[in-house]
Specification:
Number of strands: 23
Number of helices: 15
Low-confidence stretches: none
Number of domains: 3
Bound molecules: adenosine-5'-triphosphate
CATH architecture of the largest domain: 2-Layer Sandwich
Structural class: alpha+beta
CATH superfamily of the largest domain: Bira Bifunctional Protein, Domain 2
Distance between the termini: 30 Å
Radius of gyration: 26 Å
Mean pLDDT: 95
Shape: globular
């Protein structure tokens, strides 16, 4: 059975994910993606980009900067409102998100009460009334709730006197809104059209955790789809389906996914409808993808703060209007954790041993083909084959250790196929191709490998 501990250990041992800054004792909640992890991450981003930008007739791409004019965050509401309710335990000095603490307490008791939308005073009241203990020490000595802004602040400028405070973006979406006008003109687009972007976001989360599920630095893949208000419901449903289909087509187990619409109380101030796609992680259901109808809130706010015209023209009536925005927003690392958890499998073999295998969809697999010489004497021939395959698929040449151990390692990083060069290869021009999932082996002429793999890795 998959557990978080197993995923963390496998990730570390196999070069998928390492704890950050380890050489200096670490930096809490930062993670580095190793040789296998970076391939997986790139595959996820590439597959998203193809599906949500390139393959969509009405969507174009953007790469906007992380640092934005500070006024953007006032217009967007992040300076005033992007904050979490923070509570400190006076006894053990631990700090928690008050809402999460109450939700966890209710969940343990099977209490289905909703707390979304409650004020800080109301949350504090519940903690006292229910006598909720500190998750750290079990005590009952809490501070009042304080608001904590999640944006990382830094300074731009050379000297202290003229340094301007600026923020690291907490979402990539705002960069898209700022470019609505320029993209619309340059790409000759009128709504409905969308803009997709992949990039880093930063949130000074109070309670990060669950491995890479919630971190302070992460990457988002966001699509802002602009449309007339009366088409918003249609596009909301369209994008919800696209997101779910994307996951199912990449092989995520249907029973581990659910679409959860937000209740009225839970909705953000700018949204009239939001649904989360949730996945059943080893620690329980967690949001991976949020799809929101953000109404005309964003463009309206930027229009009023900037004084610039962000309206669109109805091509039939020639009337000006402010477009609505449908936003599917997903974190790269959260998807990665989901794919990792979903792919993890342990198989009992006939010889009594257990095989760990990541059953990634072939298009997600970080290493597509392992190239293995049966003996070190055959390394030169294997390298020749590797050089043929490597420009087409991410392949890896491995001549270290017994063949069985090498197969196991490739199983553990989810490599769909291993090609073994043996002593007969030189005579008959054939190699053995082993399938990760079935462990079946077929002998194929090298000349047929290209068409064999083209079929297996067809998008
Ligand atoms: P949560 O409540 O889980 O913190 P959120 O509702 O604040 O998430 P959104 O603002 O809707 O998240 O962000 C969209 C997506 O970005 C999320 O569905 C998630 O995949 C990802 N994401 C958000 N915050 C983080 C984070 N701190 N670490 C990793 N991924 C994140």
């Amino acid at each position: 059975m998959v557990t978080m501990d197993k995923l963390v250990a496998l990730s570390r041992n196999r070069g998928i994910i390492f704890a950050g800054s380890e050489l200096y004792g670490g930096l809490a909640n930062t993670w580095d993606y190793g040789p296998i992890g970076v391939e997986l991450k790139n595959n996820i981003k590439h597959l998203w980009w193809v599906r949500f930008v390139q393959a969509q007739p009405l969507v174009v791409g953007l790469d906007s900067s992380i640092l934005l004019n500070p006024q953007v965050w006032e217009a967007s509401g992040h300076v005033g409102g992007f904050s979490d309710p923070l509570i400190d335990c006076r006894q053990c000095k631990n700090r928690f998100r008050a809402d999460n603490m109450i939700e966890d307490f209710f969940a343990q008791k099977g209490d289905a009460r909703e707390i979304a939308g409650l004020s800080d005073d109301e949350l504090r009241g519940i903690i006292d009334e229910e006598n909720i203990p500190c998750p750290g020490c079990g005590g009952h000595n809490f501070t009042p709730i304080r608001k904590f802004n999640l944006m990382f602040q830094t300074y731009q400028g050379v000297t202290d006197e003229n340094a301007t405070p600026i923020y690291l973006r907490p979402e990539t979406a705002q960069g898209i809104f700022l470019n609505f006008r320029t993209i619309s003109r340059a790409a000759r687009l009128t709504p409905p059209f969308g803009v997709g972007q992949i990039g880093k976001s930063f949130r000074n989360e109070i309670t990060p955790g669950n491995f890479i599920f919630r971190t302070r630095e992460f990457e988002q893949m966001e699509l802002e789809f602009f449309c007339p208000g009366e088409e918003a419901d249609h596009w909301y449903d369209y994008w919800r389906k696209e997101c779910m289909d994307f996951l199912l087509e990449l092989g995520v187990k249907n029973e581990s996914l659910r679409m959860r619409p937000h209740s009225q109380e839970e909705l953000s101030h700018y949204s009239v409808a939001t649904s989360d796609i949730e996945y059943l992680f080893p620690f329980g259901w967690g949001e991976v993808w949020g799809i929101a109808n953000r109404t005309d809130y964003d463009l309206k706010a930027h229009m009023s703060f900037s004084g610039k015209d962000l309206t669109a023209m109805d091509p039939v009536t020639n009337e000006k209007y402010i477009p609505y925005v449908i936003e599917p927003s997903v974190g790269v690392e959260r998807l990665l954790l989901m794919f990792l958890a979903d792919a993890y499998d342990e198989e009992d073999l006939e010889d009594g041993s257990t095989r760990v295998v990541l059953r990634f969809h072939p298009l997600l697999a970080p290493v597509k083909i392992g190239v293995l010489p049966l003996s070190k004497k055959l390394t030169a021939q294997a390298e020749e084959l590797f050089r043929k395959l490597a420009p087409l698929y991410n392949a890896e040449l491995d001549d270290r250790g017994s063949i069985g151990k090498r197969y196991r390692r490739f199983d553990e990083i989810g490599t769909p196929y291993c090609v073994t060069v043996d002593f007969q290869t030189e005579e008959d021009g054939c190699v053995t191709v082993r399938d990760r999932d079935t462990m079946e082996q077929v002998r194929l002429p090298i000349s047929e490998l290209e068409s064999f793999f083209a079929e297996k890795f067809r998008p």
